[in-house]
Specification:
By secondary structure, this protein is an alpha+beta fold. It has helices spanning 7-30, 135-142, 171-178, 196-200, 204-212, 221-230, 243-254; strands at residues 32-36, 40-45, 49-53, 58-64, 69-75, 88-95, 98-105, 113-121, 124-130, 146-147, 164-165.
Amino acid sequence: MPFRSSPSYMNLRLITIIVILIVSCKTKTADWQSLDFGDFKIKAPNDWRKFNKHGIDAYIGGLTNGKDSLWFYFGSFVSGFQGNNENYLFAQDTINGKIAAIKIPKKDSAGAIEMFINNAQDQTKFVLAGSSANRHLVLKIFKSVVFQSSDTTKNGTLNTSKFKEYPLGSGTTIYNWNCKSCHSLNKMLVGPALTTELINSRTKEWLYTFFKDRKNLKQDSLNLERKKEFGETNCIELTDYSKEDVEQLISYLKGQ
Ligand code: HEC
């Protein structure tokens, strides 16, 4: 006579499977921990430990699992990505409300994965970088960084297909390449200082039309006044950039 499981035996088996599933899900998330660095927190798998280095005018340190390491810099004296950027691809993402520029090597494992946040906390800049064959893991660690002024409800969806050739794909890069010659964030140069007040006086839609479709921008008193102040010099237009790129630039300007 063939073996037939009784209904109660089936139930028991089902319950056992559910219990195993719940326990394994729990351990999966419990495999990650939050490392507290004081000014910020970073989540990483349980076998990662933090380390601190003594920086003179910046907070320097990192986290490691003994094999892979990520270094951070938290201070005021870096601007954007340093060094040769030819062999990298770039993307911009919102990480817990902070605009982050991220670069990855074009070839797997040939160079560092690096993240730069221009305004991490009260104008302090943040860099997190390291080399690892496990890109997915490093990006997941990047996405977990939380500062005191972070907003954990605001997150972008970054995936590797969003990474592009330099200089596209990053609001920071587009800004550095196209705007810095005439603008500073706090001083008047050829154009007005791009202060938070100035940027906030314009909506995202207004800024988009200003850069992409200026002929259809409705003239307003604010802009006419600025025009008078700056005479013949006009701000540039970004007709060659895609919609997505200009939107990323505006996110960068708006800091969100
Ligand atoms: C050749 C110099 C020059 C460059 C390059 C330039 N700007 Fe301007 N910008 C100006 C001048 C001059 C004004 C004021 C007159 C005007 O509005 O055209 C201005 C105005 C502005 C304004 C204020 C608009 C308003 O009325 O509220 C913003 C915002 C701005 N620029 C952002 C940018 C950004 C972002 C970039 C880079 C993509 C950029 N500018 C590149 C010269 C420049």
